[in-house]
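Give me structure tokens for this 103-residue protein.
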Amino acid sequence: MALIPFYSQRNPRRFEHKPIYYDPHKEEMEARKLRIKRELGMEAPPEKEEYGSRIRGSFVEGTKHLKRSYDRGEDGASRVKKSGWMLLLALLLVIILWFLFRG
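Here you go.
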């Protein structure tokens, strides 16, 4: 009886994507052509900073509340600090009310 577990947690299913049309030879040839063009100067290397800068602000621009706080100059640390002060104020208020109405 001890060998049979009564509760066993199931493992999540794995993501297995098998591409339908995949030609490794063609992909290798395209990468080789691109590398040769870059070596000969026919094509400029990709700009990594340009791609990163497009991603960086896109999430903040898509949400109203983050954009508003970003425009006010707030960052994550200041929001955490403000939440801490609010929690401390609420705790202080609860303590004062407890002393006033305890009996």
